[in-house]
Amino acid sequence: MVDSVTNSKAATDAATKVANSKTKLSSDLNSFLTLLTSQLKNQDPLSPMDSTQFTNQLVQFSQVEQQIGINSNLTSLIGLTQQNIASNVVNYIGKTIEGPSNQAPLINGALRASYNSESKAASVNIAVKNAAGDIVFSKSGNIEAGVHEFTWDGKDSNGIRQKDGTYNLEVTALAADGSTINTSTTVFGKVTGVTSVNGTTTLLLGNIGIPVTSVLAVTDGAS
Known about the structure:
Blueprint: H1 4-41, H2 51-89, E1 96-100, E2 103-106, E3 111-117, E4 123-129, E5 135-140, E6 146-152, E7 165-174, E8 180-181, E9 183-190, E10 193-197, E11 200-205, E12 208-211, E13 217-219
Antiparallel strand pairs: 1-9, 1-13, 2-7, 3-6, 3-9, 4-5, 4-7, 7-8, 10-11, 11-12
Helix pairs in contact: 1-2
C-alpha cells in the first residue's frame, strides 16, 4: 500500500507554511498601512513626506504576495503529481520486476537473481546467506564478463529445504592474480506493495525495497 501518511503529512506541512506566510503578510501589511495612514495624517503640510519610500514598500508587499501565491500553486501541483505517481505505481503490484539489490526473496522454494562481472574472472563463487549470516547454498558462477542469471531451489547443501523469506547474496569474482573483480547483483521478485522511503517511491518484494526509478524490467509472469 502506498505510504499515504508520509505524502499527506508533507502536503499538509507545505500548505501550513503557505497559510502562515499569508497570515504574517496580512498582519505586516495592516501594520504598515496603519502606520502610513497615521504619518500622512500628521505630516507637515509645508514639508510633505517623500512618497518614494512607502511606494517601494507597497511594491515589495505586492511582490511577496505574488510569490506566496506562486508557492501555493506549486504546492498544489506537487500534491497532484504525488497522487498521480502513487496511482501509477500501484499497477506494479502483482507483477514481477528486476532491480538492483544484494537481497533476494525465496518464494515457494524459488529464488532468481543475476550478477554482472566487470571483466573475465578466474573464478566466481555465489553464496546465499540466511538472516544469521550462515551460508545455506553456494555454487560456482560463470567466469565470463557480463550479466549472468542464476537460480536457487531453496535447498541447502544437504538437500534440506529452507524457509521462504529474504536471503542475502554474495558474489565473489577473483582474477588470476587473486585480486577482486567488481560485481553487482540484481534480483527478481513479485511486487507485494508500494511505500515511500525518504520521499522515494519504493516497490516492495516482501521485505526488500526497490526504488521505482531503479526498476530494470517488468513482467506479468511469476518470479
